[in-house]
Amino acid sequence: MDPRRACWESSSEDVTRALLPVHDDRPTRARCCSGLGAVLAGRYLAVASGPAACALICGLVDLGGHPAARNMLGVLAWVFLWWITDAVPLAVASMAPLFLFPAFGISSADAVAKAYMDDVISLVLGSFILALAIEHYQIHRRLALNVRAAAARRPSSSFPSCRLRA
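^ that's the sequence the OP posted. Answer follows.
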């Protein structure tokens, strides 16, 4: 079994395995000894591409006297490059605007944090986490087997859709 796919497959009884897939950053080939080879073998170039694109956009692009819009475009390029190149884990790339927007004067830290933790987003995030835990510990199977066992013990209280009548 491929260890990278094993994180996404449903677990049977292995409760020691992590709930979320683990991002493996280990290189598959040996690193070079030269300085340039070490930089290119690692993710340094991809990590540096985001801030470099942001600096280029903020320094060279003119959007008609709207510095917040120009800075927003720079931050968008930064996060987009990190996301596309997988230079940093997706969680880091998705949380980058939380500290980049206030740093570039696009929005206040309070407004950005409130947008990240809206009531509906918190509800959906919590239900996803609960669904992962239910799948990991096989609670859905246990619940179905307990309902089925209870119905088999008392045939009169079983579900009408489960019985066939002639």
